Amino acid sequence: MAKKEKVVKPIKGPFKESREKLRKLKAKNSIIAFAVDTIVILISALIISFVIKTFFIRSFYIPSGSMFDTLQINDRIIVNQFVPNIVPLERGDVVVFRDPGGWLGSTPETKATHPLAQISEFFSTFIGISAPDNNQHLVKRVIGKGGDRIVCCDRDNRITINGKAIIEPYLAKGSNPSNTEFDVIVPKDSFWVMGDNRGNSEDSRYHPNTPGKGFVSKSFVVGRAFVISWPLSSMKLLDNFPNVFKDVPAPKP
User: Fold this and answer.
1) What's the chain's average pLDDT?
2) What residue segments make up the domains of the chain, in order of their start?
3) What is the arithmetic mean of pLDDT over 26-40?
4) Residue 69: cis peptide before it, omega within 30 degrees of 0
């Protein structure tokens, strides 16, 4: 019985000649074939990581103690970028936002100077491991959203939202809801944000003279932080404490 010859299917489509040469080269040398496959896998992984970082999630680290005890300095958090453009931002959410103007002052830009450090920074930024613009972002908790009237404080030293007093279990130990009195109505598509460590948080209370008058417009929001990813000992999902805000009435029209 005659031995059947292996039929090689012709290559069709764009780059036909280049693909044909590559197939012949791979057939002759298994090492080259392995190298080519590895490079394709790495490039595909980088592209997927870039797409995820650009459209879905980002990573940030915590530079200050304004969110004690919820977040510690140098904690790394993962941020859902579907919020708030696709998924709405709610009271109690931990939010990352760009400086609305005048909150951070002027912060010097630091860049790696060594060539290897620059290459490392480029790739870690590309796949979303680091955020070189981290120092131009802030992390706070959403207390009020568009239309809410927020007042500090009632006779029991509690913040009220639309007339309803809230008890805030996420506050740092020993923190008062606020040592600064305020009575504000949040503009449409904006948020009133405060740090959990109220005595050490330059939040909405302290920026009435900035362009946003202390409010954070939706356009400045990067997303909602939903998990602490590093260090491993602190890894956990971030709670938005829905029970704290469940009885808050809708704002008056």
Assistant:
1) 83
2) 16-53, 59-245
3) 71
4) yes
- Predicted TM-score of the model (pTM): 0.74
Q: What is the pLDDT of residues 192-209, one digit of tens each?
A: 999 999 999 999 999 999
Task: Give me 10's structure tokens.
Answer: 């012709």
Just give the CATH number of 59-245: 2.10.109.10
Catalytic annotation, residues: 66, 140
